[in-house]
Amino acid sequence: MNIVDLDIAGASKAILAKSISSAELTTQTLARIASINPHLKAYEQVLSEDARAAAKAADAEIASGTHRGPLHGIPIAIKAIYDVKGVKTTSGSKVRRDYVAKNDSTVVRKLKEAGAVILGIVTTYEFAFGFDSSPTRNAWNIDHIPSGSSGGTAAAVAASLCMAGVGTDTGGSVRAPAAANGVAGIKPSFGRVSKAGITSLSWSLDHPGPIAKTVEDLATLLRIMSGADPKDPDTKDVPVPDYPNAMRGDVRGMRIGLPTNYFFDDIQAPVGDAVTNAVKKLETMGAIIVPITVPGVDGIVDSWMPIAVAEAAAFHQHTLRTKTALYGDEVRLLLEVGELTLATTYINAQRVRLAWQSQLKETMRDINVIVTPTLPNTAMKVGETISKIGSREESVFAVSARFCAPFNMSGLPGVSIPCGFAPNGLPIGLQIVGKAFEEEVVLKLANAFESSTDYHLRRPPMPGLTK
Question: Is the pLDDT confidence value at 174 over 90?
Answer without folding.
Answer: yes
